[in-house]
Specification:
DNA-binding transcription factor activity, 6 helices, mainly alpha, single chain, Arc Repressor Mutant, subunit A, Homoprotocatechuate degradation operon regulator HpaR, WH-like_DNA-bd_sf, HTH_MarR-typ
């Protein structure tokens, strides 16, 4: 009888394998992995309300606050109050932020292509669908308090 796979170890290994390929580019840019996740999300959807950014990057609000201060001080992002609701902060990626993460984004796209070439786009999509199904089934997302 075959042993059941250790799901936690399998998922962590897959995650770490992806991040490990990007770490050299992040190091050159002077970014941590959570900082890159924030900038990567802003590249796709800028500007964003800070609370949505926290939810979409799985970064706790308390950590996001510190990350945003650092990224703003480095001119990678800009923050502004939302006019409709002054309690909400809009966060946007600056041109300098786009330039800074460009090499990481290229490495990320190349990794996606390398995986598709090696195991097929359908397998990559099936893996993503399966992982989404697991999250939906469990009903808890990272950062939920």
């Amino acid at each position: 009888m075959a042993a059941e796979p250790d799901l936690m170890k399998t998922f962590l290994l897959a995650y770490e394998s992806v991040i490990e390929t990007l770490r050299p580019s992040m190091k050159v840019a002077g970014l941590t992995e959570p900082q890159w996740r924030v900038l990567h999300e802003l590249k796709a959807r800028s500007p964003m309300i800070a609370s949505e950014l926290a939810a979409n990057t799985f970064v706790r609000a308390s950590s996001l606050s510190r990350i945003l201060r650092d990224l703003e001080a480095r001119d990678l992002i800009a923050r502004a109050q939302q006019f409709e609701d002054l309690r909400k902060t809009l966060v946007s990626l600056t041109d300098y932020g786009r330039k800074t993460i460009a090499p990481i984004e290229i490495a990320y796209a190349e990794l996606g292509q390398r995986l598709a070439d090696a195991i097929g786009r359908e397998a990559v999509n099936a893996c993503a669908t399966a992982c989404s199904g697991i999250v939906e089934q469990i009903g808890v997302q990272p950062g939920d308090d």
